Amino acid sequence: MDTTSESPTDQTPADALPAEQPPAEPESTAEPLLAPRDGLPPTIETSTALVAYADALAGGSGPVAVDAERASGYRYGQSAYLVQMRRAGAGTGLIDPVPLPDLSVVQAAIADEEWVLHAANQDLPCLAEIGLAPARLFDTELAARLAGLPRVGLGAVVESLLGLSLQKGHSAADWSTRPLPEDWLVYAALDVEVLVELRDELARILAEQGKTEWARQEFEAILAAGPPAAKVDPWRKTSGMHGLRSRRQLGMLRSLWQARDDLARRRDIAPGRVLPDSAIVSAVQADPKTEGALLELPVFRGRANRKLVTTWFGALTRGRELPENDLPLHSRPGDGPPPVNRWADRDAAAAARLKAARAGLAEVSEHWSVPVENLLSPDLVRRLMWTPPRPADAATVTETLRAGGAREWQIGLTGELLTEAITAS
């Protein structure tokens, strides 16, 4: 008798069935990478030790693996609190930039070598602060994107390509802590342990896919971009401010945000640890008219903020008393196109161009296994479709893309389809 079938009258009601469980993730067969192969080196904290390691780096061979640890969420800025390096013939170095804020001796030792970083844009600014800047670069995260890997985090890429699993758990730690715990140092050393091997495997894959030149152009673009530009109106990133309706409220928020930022900078504390965004927004919404009323709000009742009540109330008062002409606009004037969800109403032809361009880019992305955002900057696509160049021929589109920062490999893959999207409208 077939016991797998049921008559309709015998079936259990659907809402009485147990919830379907997602398929279990296959158990990883990767080999855990638990300790540096050469043992954990002592942290480099003196000029003598730094010079010795710089000499070792200069005498080594091949690319240099580089990483840095910051104290995001704990300290005000994005400074490096540990720099890890590894090179064949030199071994791993764990450099403490707190007592050694100038690493130019290391820079001189490896200035002309290729540096290997994962997600280089995250670390290059803090490395530059201490005198470290590569002339040649291989970014393993970006290479993984170009190679079409489904997951591009360092641990995922190391596991999929090298069959090794990295330790987890300390990436969000307070790396300004001193002394640094040994297990943190092991974690940091392992981040550069196999970075050069990973670089070699990704380079092999890119060569097989015919993407070596693409990667070279991308790495050069990272170096040519230089340090990130200062953010305009950073206070507009305050979480929860969408609930504020008037320009007066925006003025109060900006004033309170600036007071918090000044205090956080002076104390070298992450702004959110001085005063959460939610407290700033709630204070603006409550609009307290006295210090006592401010102290009745959550967060402000705490001992630390009771001591700072004059600072916070003074900032709110300054924002409340700003002249009308000095109040911030609801949105920052920009030179770019409007939000895409408004295109159909404001310019139907532009909306049609963008739709055609996105469809073409999606096909190219799938064909080459490259994420659309790496195929071409989405902002550049929107600008091109909103305000097409004239004449809208291939040569003009090419020059517009080049002026917008597109690399030659990107132009070669997308120029023709973007020209067609423009001319078809």
TrEMBL record:
Biological processes annotated in GO: nucleobase-containing compound metabolic process
Q: In Gene Ontology terms, what is one molecular function of this protein? A: nucleic acid binding
Q: Where is the composition biased (Polar residues)?
A: 1-12
Region Disordered: start and end of each range? 1-41
Q: What superkingdom heads the lineage?
A: Bacteria
Domain HRDC stretches: 246-326
CDD domains (UniProt xref):
RNaseD_exo
Q: Where is the composition biased (Low complexity)?
A: 26-36
The protein's matches in Pfam families, at most eight in alphabetical order, are given as:
DNA_pol_A_exo1 (PF01612), DNA_pol_A_exoN (PF18305), HRDC (PF00570)
| Protein name, entry field | Ribonuclease D
Origin species, per record, is Modestobacter muralis
